[in-house]
């Protein structure tokens, strides 16, 4: 379990993360939602050990996070950042193979075989021989996801954790759902997943619990039904919504209210 | 292209260069003589070669050949590592001013060794020159890195190359001032430093500089897996358990080591670090685990071939080898600039 208490992170006078308490159990999907600049990515960087702890405490399976070396952390948790620029012409499978870096080198044929298996997971095996920089944004994201899964699934640790920072931002609706169905398979294997999600309904459908953030602070944390209500969403995003009943499931469905169209007026000086 | 046939072809190119470099020159050596010369170390052999052939091969061509291979290999590997570090295939230790920093420091030791820097000379003896060249190379590398961190865009290659132009010009100006203080012998050295040459390499030069270069030749391939990961950015590198700052420090130190040691013996030899990794990447892809060692082999072959040309073109005189590499490298660099627009990075 990842247990974080009173996480606070400041840059100059700005407080990016302000007193967050959070638990992530192996086997659960925790979705983190919030407006742009609410501190979601900062929280992820602190929890994944990329930013050193300023205030508060983080324990990973009962040990302070600071006791883990970079190499040890790489074997129990994987991180998918918002974007990772790669302009060199690696083939897609070679990018995925880089996910095994913490575990050393194998023969090329073996590395390729393993990488192809992970590409299959994200439905990108047909891209294996393509040069990475020539892929579309969504294809790149799915190949990177395969790389991150490769890192995580190569580990034999009992408890593993996955951090996803808007990993579906460039994907079409079908692939968004495909990715989250994959994430559900991972949680069934005792992997704890923390995912930053923008799509409220995607979070409602797949998450076990939700953390709603506003201005670096936790607005509400708990089960989906309790957290993703029109009142909380209005508070977090300044967005008015209606809650509908899903025709066949019990998760909430939120749609934006109709707002009057204001006429654009020329800027007044 | 597959890695194996490419590697074999390049090894063959290097082997051919080695034979040619030993055979060609003012004193022609036949292949028979070369074979005998090689066999004479066989235990119990009683081979007698003409004395002048013996001297030419053992004392003149052999150290020159080895030095050329070491410098070519280390410049090319350093280029590959620097390109990976900056995530840009147009970076090169020479283009960003590292070589000129090393050359300036070496020149300062030559010109001021008896006066201002006498203390330095007595403290380090025969290591004074390579150490100074190493220091000069390291200083410029840090300046470049500092500029890369302080400018918007995190050190775009145009910024770095422009900074390299400025540093090279500045180092050239300071070198110019030094030449006014210099005597005739030092002036000849100045010409030598700025254009590069392997003509006067002795076993002693080799003994002083080779260990430093060999250290970098061993180190760069070990950094290859980390450089692969670093291509995806510093945070991905950290997530995969590697400290990007440590890798950067190591690449800087070993680049400075390789360039400094090379420059202290042979002066400034440009473009090898740019052209070679680029050619190899176009052929076998960007995986540093193959790219770095193969760049070493191709770099060694290229420099030995360039040295052969330098000896042949205006025989019995010799061209500085830096002129040959610049003659090849300059047009190649322009070609790269033109090809950048239509995806020069793709090796398919």
Q: Report the count of strand segments of chain B.
A: 0
Quickly give the structural class of chain B: mainly alpha
Runs of chain B with pLDDT <50, length 5+? 343-348
**Approximate shape of chain B:** globular
Largest interface: A-B, 32 and 27 residues
Quaternary structure type: heterodimer
CATH topology of chain B: ABC transporter involved in vitamin B12 uptake, BtuC
Estimate the mean pLDDT confidence of chain A.
Answer: 92
How many domains of chain B? The number is 1
Order of helices and strands of chain B: HHHHHHHHHHHHHHH
Helices of chain B, by number, come to: 15
Strand order of the largest sheet of chain A: 6-7-8-3-9-10
The portion of residues assigned to helices of chain A is 25-40%
CATH hierarchy class name of chain B:
Mainly Alpha
Structure description:
The complex is a heterodimer of chains A (269) and B (348). In chain A, 41% of the residues are buried. Chain A is built from nine helices and twelve strands. The mean pLDDT of chain A is 92. In chain A, helix 6 (173-188) links the parallel strand 7 (160-165) and strand 8 (191-196). Chain A has 269 residues and is an alpha/beta fold. The termini of chain A are far apart. The longest helix of chain A has 17 residues, at 137-153. A six-stranded mixed beta sheet of chain A has the order 6-7-8-3-9-10, with helices on both faces. Chain B is mostly helical and 348 residues long. Chain B has one domain (60-339): ABC transporter involved in vitamin B12 uptake, BtuC (Orthogonal Bundle). Chain B is built from 15 helices and no strands. In chain B, helix 3 runs antiparallel to helix 12 and helix 6 (128-150) runs antiparallel to helix 7 (157-181). The interface between A and B is medium-sized, with 32 and 27 residues.
In brief:
The complex is a heterodimer of chains A (269) and B (348). Chain A has nine helices and twelve strands.
């Amino acid at each position: 379990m990842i247990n974080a208490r009173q996480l606070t992170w400041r840059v100059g006078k700005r407080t990016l993360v302000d007193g967050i308490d959070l638990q992530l159990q192996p086997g659960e999907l925790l979705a983190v939602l919030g407006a742009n600049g609410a501190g979601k990515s900062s929280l992820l960087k602190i929890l994944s050990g990329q930013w050193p702890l300023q205030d508060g405490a983080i324990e990973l399976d009962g040990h302070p996070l600071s006791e883990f070396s970079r190499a040890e952390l790489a074997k129990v948790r994987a991180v998918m950042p918002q974007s990772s620029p790669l302009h060199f012409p690696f083939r897609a499978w070679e990018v995925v193979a880089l996910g095994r870096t913490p575990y050393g080198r194998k023969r090329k044929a073996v590395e390729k075989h393993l990488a192809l298996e992970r590409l299959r997971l994200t439905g990108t095996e047909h891209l294996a021989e393509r040069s990475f920089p020539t892929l579309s944004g969504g294809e790149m994201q799915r190949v990177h996801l395969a790389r991150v899964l490769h890192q995580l699934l190569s580990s034999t640790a009992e408890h593993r954790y996955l951090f996803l920072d808007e990993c579906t931002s460039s994907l079409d609706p079908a692939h968004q759902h495909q990715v989250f169905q994959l994430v559900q398979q991972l949680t069934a294997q005792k992997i704890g997943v923390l995912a930053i999600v923008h799509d409220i309904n995607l979070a409602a459908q797949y998450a076990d619990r939700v953390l709603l953030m506003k201005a670096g602070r936790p607005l509400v944390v708990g089960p989906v039904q309790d957290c993703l209500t029109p009142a909380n969403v209005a508070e977090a995003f300044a967005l008015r919504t209606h809650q509908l009943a899903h025709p066949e499931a019990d998760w909430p469905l939120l749609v934006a209210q109709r707002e009057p169209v204001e006429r654009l007026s020329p800027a007044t000086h | 292209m597959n890695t194996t046939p490419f590697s074999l072809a390049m090894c063959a190119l290097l082997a051919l260069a080695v034979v040619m470099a030993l055979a060609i020159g003012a004193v022609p050596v036949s292949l028979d003589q070369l074979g005998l010369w090689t066999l004479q170390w066989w235990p119990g052999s009683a081979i007698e070669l003409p004395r002048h052939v013996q001297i030419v091969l053992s004392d003149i061509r052999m150290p020159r050949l080895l030095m050329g291979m070491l410098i070519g290999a280390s410049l090319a590997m350093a280029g590959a590592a620097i390109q990976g570090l900056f995530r840009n295939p147009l970076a090169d230790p020479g283009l960003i001013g590292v070589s000129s920093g090393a050359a300036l420091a070496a020149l300062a030791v030559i010109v001021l060794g008896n006066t201002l820097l006498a203390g330095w000379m007595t403290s380090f003896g025969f290591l004074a020159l390579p150490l100074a060249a190493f220091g000069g190379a390291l200083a410029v590398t840090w300046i470049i890195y500092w500029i890369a961190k302080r400018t918007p865009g995190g050190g775009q290659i145009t910024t770095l190359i422009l900074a390299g132009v400025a540093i090279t010009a500045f180092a050239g100006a300071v070198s110019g001032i030094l030449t006014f203080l210099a005597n005739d012998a030092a002036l000849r050295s100045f010409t030598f430093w700025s254009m590069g040459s392997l003509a006067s390499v002795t076993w002693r030069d080799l003994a002083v500089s080779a260990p430093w270069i060999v250290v970098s030749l061993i180190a760069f391939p070990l950094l290859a897996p980390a450089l692969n990961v670093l291509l995806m950015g510093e945070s991905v590198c950290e997530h995969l358990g590697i400290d990007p700052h440590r890798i950067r420090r190591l690449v800087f130190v070993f680049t400075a080591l390789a360039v400094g040691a090379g420059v202290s013996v042979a002066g400034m030899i440009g473009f090898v670090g740019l052209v070679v990794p680029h050619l190899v990447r176009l052929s076998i892809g960007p995986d540093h685990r193959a790219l770095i060692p193969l760049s070493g082999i191709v770099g060694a072959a290229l420099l030995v071939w360039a040295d052969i040309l330098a000896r042949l073109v205006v025989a019995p005189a010799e061209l500085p080898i830096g002129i040959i590499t610049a003659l090849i490298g300059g047009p190649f660099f322009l070609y790269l600039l033109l090809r950048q627009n239509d995806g020069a990075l793709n090796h398919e």
